[in-house]
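Notes to self after the call with IL:
- keep both proteins in one doc
- input above output, always
- annotate only the second one for now

Protein 1:
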Amino acid sequence: MSNTSIAAAAREEFQTRGYAVVESLFSPDEVAELQDLFSEIHRTGAQGHYEHQSIEEAGNDPLLAYPRVMHPHRFSALANQQMRHPTIAAVLRAILGEEPLAVQSMFYFKPPGSRGQAMHQDQFYLQVRPGTCVAAWVALDHVDRANGGMVMVPLTQDLPIDCRKAGDPEAGSYGPNAVPIPIPEGYRGESPELEPGDTIFFNGSLLHGSGRNTTTERWRRSFICHYVGVSCETISESYHPLVTMEGEDVVRAKTTDGGPCGGWVGAAH
């Protein structure tokens, strides 16, 4: 199937449900390259770009031994290249209706026993104006409920941003003290089962999170990037510089008033 056909199908699902799954967007070779890259980053520390505790120091929290890698596109050519993957770019153009700009990349190891991520909305953190962000969440392992798969709440993309965490920035959406957003009455979460290379695209206002990895031997590695349309005028401070699909840095203003929640400027999550 051509990128045009893939993008058109994803756009229809995205507009209707707030998220869309594109199967096998990354090839097995591309998946293996990213797996190897992040194993190397964990092993070497990427010249000071990544730190983690030892297994002994981490105690009962696997995420201290294997924390997420933040913004690998800023120090890894491969991560930068795959953040701008041509099929991702084609889907984003269809969804956004304009040229996309990349603003964030992350890698999650999520080893066995890792806690989940509280339900949240990405726009709470990115504070994009006008419009919102779009995430591309690439599975690098088989993903299901048992190993902490994503929980998406379809049709919540038109809900307002929930600001209840705004008074407690230390809680965030990832830590053990995170304040989850309850799923509103009438909505129901669902957890897509994914194969390596499958990619979820979802709206920045869509309510989503993840469950605990309850397995004893299965990881749930993923490569996640966030994007905005080229018409973006402001975005939270943590996401600068923005990057074009050709790999050039571009400048936008920084949101300084807390965006939809006012007075609180969120950090990268």
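Protein 2 (the one to annotate):
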Amino acid sequence: MSDEQSSSVSTESPIAESVEAGTTIDLVQPEAVDQVSNAPVKEGQAEAGKTGAQQSILTGDDAGDPSGDETGETPEETKPTARAPEEYEDFSVPEGMKLEGEELTEFKFFAREQDLTQEQAQRVLDFAGPKIKAMIEQPYKAWKETTEQWWNATKADAEVGGTRLEQSVKDAGQAFVPSESNPFFKTQAEVQAIREALRLTGAMHHPEVQRLFVRMGRLLAEPSHLTGKPASQDKQQAFLNSMYPTMMEGGS
């Protein structure tokens, strides 16, 4: 480049002059900087920006996360769909149990309320069914064991059991024959009521209950003590067969 050309560049180009002088070039006009720094800030913008930054730092939340609204509710499209069918099919019921009528309706309502599928509801039945069955049967088993213990005690009793058992049963039968001369039972309805109570409770097998009715029957058989008349053989046998069916068959 000639000296003339260099002179032309240096005098016509301020940038070239600055480069040659080794100075730093500021391309932003001072007036523009002042305008930006002094621009008015709308009320609430600065505080909102500060608060949002603090929340983001403290909680780790993304201030711009649009996944939920201000109420914290999950958008409708993300809610899980129901698993329970509109109508359950037939269930397989554990052996020895019945699930029908009102009980079946209640179970289906429970399964639907818990949002159980057909398979899940069946597993509940498979697990809980035998346990419920055992709970239901437990009181009967306890009753049966107790009455068997009572009857064994009666058979071993020195007064009414042993070799006297058969006669004791006949003597007790005397008390259950209603008549006007019987001071204990006047009508068949009275006999039926006490007989039903003894059966349901199992008290008929208790040795003390047996002893009571044996003594009552013996008093009725002794006219010198009571005015009652001994029952006929047919009536007495009919009562014994109904009151003590197991014993009269020779078993316990």
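Annotation: Residues 118-155 form the longest helix (38 residues). The chain is about 60% helix and 0% strand.
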